[in-house]
Specification:
Bound molecules: zinc ion
CATH topology of the largest domain: Phosphorylase Kinase, domain 1
Strand order of the largest sheet: 2-1-5-6-7-8-10-9
Structural class: alpha+beta
Number of strands: 10
Order of helices and strands: EEEEEEEEHEEH
Number of domains: 2
Shape: globular
CATH class of the largest domain: Alpha Beta
Strand content: 25-35%
Largest sheet: 8 strands, antiparallel
CATH architecture of the largest domain: 2-Layer Sandwich
């Protein structure tokens, strides 16, 4: 697992064994508490760092506010439910759903990527100023699937 130092924003890679324990940042020396889970705030998944939950939005546990690191912009990370990790059809549908949305020029918010890192499958979308509409669109069922 990788996560971000709150102070210097360096990426820190650790073994999952020490989750929840304090650790010194290699770059700035700040004492950090290691995120509790592999999808907690500050965890880095691929090009995205998970943000603190947004207040007053009743988000499902599979939809996380995030920040795209390389382009330095807000994003949504939608996780595939890990329950379906061994279900190939489900994984393919999850990938195809993101591709179909990317091809659909009218789909908002715009998809950024669909990827897998350490057995976490996720879709990422741009995050703009209309969180309620964006959440509804991301979580809506695609009738073609
Ligand atoms: Zn640091």
């Amino acid at each position: 697992m990788r996560f971000q130092c709150e102070k210097c924003h360096s990426a820190i890679a650790i073994d999952d064994i020490v989750m929840g324990e304090p650790l010194g940042c290699d770059s700035c020396g700040e004492i950090l508490v290691i995120p509790e889970t592999t999808t907690s705030p500050r965890v880095i998944i691929n090009d995205f760092v998970i943000c603190e939950p947004l207040p007053d939005l009743n988000l499902p546990h599979t939809l996380l506010p995030a920040r795209q690191i390389t382009l330095d912009r807000p994003a949504w990370v939608r996780l595939m439910d890990p329950e379906y990790i061994d279900d190939n059809d489900w994984v393919i549908d999850f990938i195809y759903e993101a591709r179909a949305r990317a091809k659909d020029k009218d789909f908002q918010p715009r998809p950024i990527t669909v990827a897998e890192e350490k057995m976490i499958y996720f879709q990422a979308y741009e995050r703009g100023d209309s969180p309620l509409e964006e959440i509804d669109a991301i979580l809506s069922m695609d009738p073609d699937l």
